[in-house]
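Notes from the 1:1 (GR / supervisor)

We went over the backlog. Supervisor wanted to see one worked example end to end before approving the batch request, so GR pasted a single chain during the call. The sequence is below; no edits were made to it. Supervisor asked that the structure be written out right there so they could see what the output format looks like.
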Amino acid sequence: MRLFKLLSVLLDYPSDALLAELRQAVAEAGPGGARDLVFDLDRQQVFSQEERLAIALFLEDLLAQEATELQARYVQTFDLTAEHSLHLTHHIFGEEKTRGPALIDLTEHLKTYGYSHDEKELPDYLPLLLEFVSELGEDESKVFLGDAGKVLKVIAANLEKSGSHYAQLIRIVDNHGSLVKLAA
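Structure output shown during the call:
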């Protein structure tokens, strides 16, 4: 489930340090670079070959761009456009007072797994949740992501409308929650 950790990183703010870590990981992965890295992170083949290739191409494209351009685009996409927010409860509650109890419940749920997060970040931040999911087994991750399915579909659709390349990553994440519904 280590590929969920990479998805977490790819959906997080592309800081200079994060980009340097990604470049190093790709360089160390082997002659296939990003493709070798992605395929190595999914040895269990939880993701389809098409999904792994899409993630590798996204990573290659990301690393081919200037950091300041990536950072500006990220802020414009996720921080300045509410419809693209990676804070999942925002899409359900907006800024209503009822969002607070949902965030507390989510924090408590994460704690039942022994998972704690940086208190500076809200627990519904998708990269944080993907990091959590990377520690779960395949079945548990499908159930957890299945619960977020409606919100992930909304975010992906909003990103697609704006032509954002991040949409494909959200669709891949959503697909791994949707699979549990197919098996039921």
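Supervisor's comment: The mean pLDDT is 90.
Batch request approved.
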